[in-house]
Fold:
Amino acid sequence: MWGISQQHFGRPLLWPSIQQRNGVGEPRQLPVGKVLHFADGETQAVVVAVSGDVRAESGASSGAAQPGMRLREGARVRTGPDSFITLRLPDGSLCTLPSNSTVRLDRFFDAAGRAAALLDLQAGEVESRVPPRAVPPGQDTFRVRTRMATVGVRGTHFRVGLADGRRVVVSVLESRIVVRTATQPDLPLAAPQGVVIDDGPQGGTVQELLPAPAWIDAGLPQNQSAVLLAWTEVNGAAGYHAQLARDAEFLDVVAERHVVRSGPRELALFDAIPFESYFARVAAVTPEGIEGQVTVSGFSRASASASLGGRMRWIAASDEIEFDWNPIADSTYGLEIAEDAAFTRMIVRAEGLRGHAVRVQALPPGQYFWRVRADTVAQGQHSETVGPVLPLLVEGVR
Structure:
């Protein structure tokens, strides 16, 4: 296995990571035909997803982070406002940095070549998902270090954040971790628990995470101009942290909001979100800054203007023209017909229509244009959608 490590990674001492990843017992008795799996970027971190202004500094080079970019030990990653990045480390761990965060990738392996990642969190927050590994008692395979404390784990899902530069806030969503400081003994935490490390009277006191909020109208299409999330208030919360992502694991985060508790119906509004499918999650936050358990929901976001495209037909028996269009939930409609495509010479305007079809008396022969307007009230949010302009040709003989 020593030679395999040298052949694939250029470093023979990385053979223990191959052994751990593939569950090999005695490395000197590797069975013939045994299939070994090697992750991409085995000796470096790989950018899985990135959104917004994210900079990566590695050695003397610095530039915008891009998906697929590889980062060596010692690289520093910074996220700007409303910007996000997820990294996959050589041991398979996934680390997500939200807005205004900075982390230094101190190392990925120990002196013996074993997986032992060490991240230096310098600002903001990092959310980590560490795969479980069989290691000797007391040995951590993954650590997040801050100025005040170090979090060591073997396999878990947890968050570490710096609040105001004076406090370290930790919450555990799965499994367990150990928090170490220079002045306090090792502090074990198990899901769902959290802690704040500071100099205050409550510093180091373990708390149960607040429960996940309950969605209001979860999963409904979000076709209005802005995305509006709603949930019921959580007792004990001072505020909430809401995020949108393109995937259910929240590796590709695209937006987030921090909102103050207002109750009993809590809201988060997201502007300028492109039309596609998303996942939303929200967690309650204690007055000390500990984020609680999350609730997740998916929703689609389609262009309402495209869905308002319609059809028309002539009803010979009544000498009428019937117009119909695709409905939009929770909407009333208006039909407009004009002599020009800019609708400066309007000749028909029917408003307050509840259904998605209407008839009008046949028009004199000529070229006209028509469109539909939808007035929508969804989740307490009002929006107006204007459908595409469609031609209407009325011939002299019908």
